[in-house]
Amino acid sequence: MTEKTNDDSTHAVEDERRPLSPGEVLRTARAEFTDLTGLSAESVSRFERTGDGWALEVEVLELERVPDTMSLMATYEVTLDGEGLLTGYRRLRRYERGRADSSHRG
């Protein structure tokens, strides 16, 4: 009979986390944002690595109207730490789905 031992070096390797892939970060951010706000991200318009984590801008349906082009959409900035955990969010703007963005950067 072989006795199993609890080797601390094995646990140390298991505790080391591999870096999250961008897809994993995105899925986690969308799920956590929906859990916190009840709003589902329809699309992600910005996704970038920052010095201490990740930053996303997500487009969400805030108020459904008929016709659909009159529905109110919003852009939220979502921030995550280096491990992909949501650290904050804030609404950047609201707009009607059928309206083009009038601001331009030049």
Describe this structure in words.
The protein is α+β, with helices and mostly antiparallel strands and 106 residues long. The chain has a single domain (20-95), classed as Nuclear Transport Factor 2, Chain: A (Roll). The protein is built from two helices and four strands; from the N terminus they run ααββββ. Strands 1-2-3-4 form a four-stranded antiparallel beta sheet. The chain is elongated. The termini are far apart. Residues 10-15 have low confidence and may be disordered.
Computed structural class? alpha+beta
- SS summary, helix count: 2
- The SSE order reads HHEEEE
> So what's the overall shape?
elongated
* Physical arrangement of strands within the biggest beta sheet: 1-2-3-4
Topology-level CATH name: Nuclear Transport Factor 2, Chain: A
Radius of gyration: 20 Å
β-sheet strand percentage: 35-45%
Mean model confidence by pLDDT? 84
Distance between the termini: 75 Å
Helix content: 10-25%
**Stretches where pLDDT falls below 50 for ≥5 residues?**
10-15
Largest sheet: 4 strands, antiparallel
**CATH level-1 class:** Alpha Beta
- Beta strand count: 4
Question: Number of folding domains?
Answer: 1
CATH architecture classification: Roll
